[in-house]
Structure to design on (212 residues):
């Protein structure tokens, strides 16, 4: 009799688990779909092949399977780059230890920013994520990647302090290599995230979580 009661208990528990699964799984799927509806696909990441701060060749193919943030900067920037870097570090620290989150910082002054210079910069500026790539290469390739590939403005500007102009925006890329963005007012995509604004950095942290 005791054994029969035990079997009935197991059956009862199994039915409860089954019913919970029938109720919960659709809600989980709907929740995931809801996050996807809040995110627009801007387009595929442009092809690139550049050298990182360890002297290794890195392309967009090497980053597939990771959610990552892209910026264009230079190490001697006297204005917005330090603010952008602090924002990137804030995101890095939020996802500390997560191997599926990466960062890409492309220099717009490759003549000065060699792999050695970029490596020293990374060590001196609180970079702890092994998936953070500091990239350099041919200046024409980099400028085409920024201006035509990502549509993130960069330019040489001798009259400006530091000698270069560039956008303070970040691009967000999903695991499949697509540039993504949250949808904001009137159903329009935000497209890029302002690395100088705390509110945009918070949005970016949330949207990385959604894409993960």
């Amino acid at each position: 009799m005791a054994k029969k009661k035990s079997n009935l208990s197991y059956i009862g528990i199994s039915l409860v688990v089954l019913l919970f699964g029938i109720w919960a799984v659709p809600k989980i799927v709907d929740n995931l779909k809801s996050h996807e509806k809040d995110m627009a696909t801007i387009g595929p990441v442009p092809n690139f092949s550049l050298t990182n701060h360890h002297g290794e060749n890195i392309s967009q193919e090497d980053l597939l399977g990771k959610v990552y943030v892209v910026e264009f900067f230079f190490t001697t920037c006297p204005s917005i780059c330090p603010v952008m870097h602090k924002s990137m570090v804030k995101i890095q620290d939020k996802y500390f230890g997560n191997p599926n989150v990466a960062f890409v910082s492309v220099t717009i002054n490759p003549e000065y920013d060699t792999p050695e210079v970029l490596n020293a910069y990374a060590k001196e500026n609180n970079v702890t994520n092994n998936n953070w790539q500091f990239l350099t290469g041919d200046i024409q390739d980099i400028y085409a990647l920024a201006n035509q590939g990502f549509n993130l403005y960069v330019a040489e500007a001798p009259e400006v302090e530091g000698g270069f102009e560039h956008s303070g925006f970040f691009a967000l890329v999903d695991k499949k290599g697509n540039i993504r963005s949250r949808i904001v007012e009137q159903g329009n995509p935000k497209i890029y995230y302002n690395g100088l604004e705390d509110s945009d950095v918070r949005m970016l942290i949330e949207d990385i979580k959604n894409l993960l």
User: Anything to note?
Assistant: Residues 2-37 form the longest helix (36 residues). Helices lie at 2-37, 81-94, 115-124, 139-150, 198-211. The chain has five helices and eleven strands.
